[in-house]
Amino acid sequence: MDALTESTRHLLALRLLARDARISIVHHETGLSRGHLRALYRDLHRRSPKSGQLPAVGCSAIRSRRQQVHGSLFAALYAAHGGPDIHKQMDIDAVVRAYDTLLLMVGGTAGAEIDLNVCWVIARDLRIGTSRLPYCARCGVHYLVSENARAPASCPLCALYARHQCRPSVENAAGKPATASPG
User: Fold this and answer.
1) Which helix (H) or strand (E) holds 13?
2) In whole angstroms, what separates CA 109 from the centre of its chain?
3) Full-model pTM
4) What is the bridge-based pairing of β-strands 135-136 and 131-132?
5) Using CA atoms, how far apart are residues 75 and 43, in angstroms rounded to an integer?
6) pLDDT digits (tens, 9 = 90+) for 86-130
7) What angle do CA 162, 168, 171 make, to 5 degrees?
8) 48-67 per-position pLDDT tens digit
9) Which residues fall within 8 angstroms of residue 28, CB to CB, at 6 or more apart?
10) Which helix (H) or strand (E) holds 79?
11) How many CB atoms lie within 10 A of CB 162?
12) Torsion sign (Cα): 88, 151, 164, 180
């Protein structure tokens, strides 16, 4: 392997580890040894990495409507950054960009209901077809639905609107009703 490829793999590992990615994800994406990745993680965070399995297929990590909203936002951002091929192959750079954008939108990691590991699982599940982004004509957004998710397979925004007794607006900035887009 040439030096440039090796450097690229290490830079990706550092980008992922800086965002608290699980060692198994970083190993999968970079091919670097788990022992080397654990050492990098300890150097970055001054603590050992978390252990344990990733959520199973179907994104069982989504347990609440708020997590489903954040998962939906991530999935929409990932689709925008990754383009139409996200259902064919995972784009780790698009995952990182979408996750960073999500954090900007929700006020950082303290405001986020999901972490990079859950985002990676969502991207993986979109690729293999166990998660999808149906369109809600009532509130005008695409939302995340995953097999085996603990949250119901309906629009989380509509559910939150109903809980807070307010109505969604499906008008765009021009005052015209929102229309469904393919996706």
Assistant:
1) helix 3-18
2) 13
3) 0.85
4) unpaired
5) 31
6) 999 999 999 999 999 999 999 999 999 999 999 999 999 999 998
7) 170
8) 998 877 766 556 778 888 89
9) none
10) helix 65-82
11) 12
12) positive
